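User: Hello, beginner here. Can you help me understand these amino acid letters and fold codes? It all follows right here:
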Amino acid sequence: QVQLVESGGGLVQPGGSLRLSCAASGSIVSIYTMSWYRQAPGKQRELVAIISSGSGSTTNVADSVKGRFTISRDNAKNTVYLQMNSLKPEDTAVYYCNALQAIRSYWGQGTQVTVSS
């Protein structure tokens, strides 16, 4: 059973930065497609950023965070990161890590990010 543990959330002022981490229980980050999602109160969960499996590491981010958020991974540490810069109040949400391979999909418990002055 794969376990994902997110960390790095917190309260930050607008314009600030945070780096979220998603630590996996096994050596999966190089062979699973890894993603970050977020869910704000009263809204549906949305995809924020995705990084492909394999050595190519193709990444993509949602238009709403393009130019501000970056996804990356460290295979040796079995960890995926989400670097978030120039944060806005509308980025406030619970952020979830997801690992996907074929029909296997795993979620972390989420980490709260609050952007407020």
Observations:
- The mean pLDDT is 95.
- The chain has no helices and eleven strands.
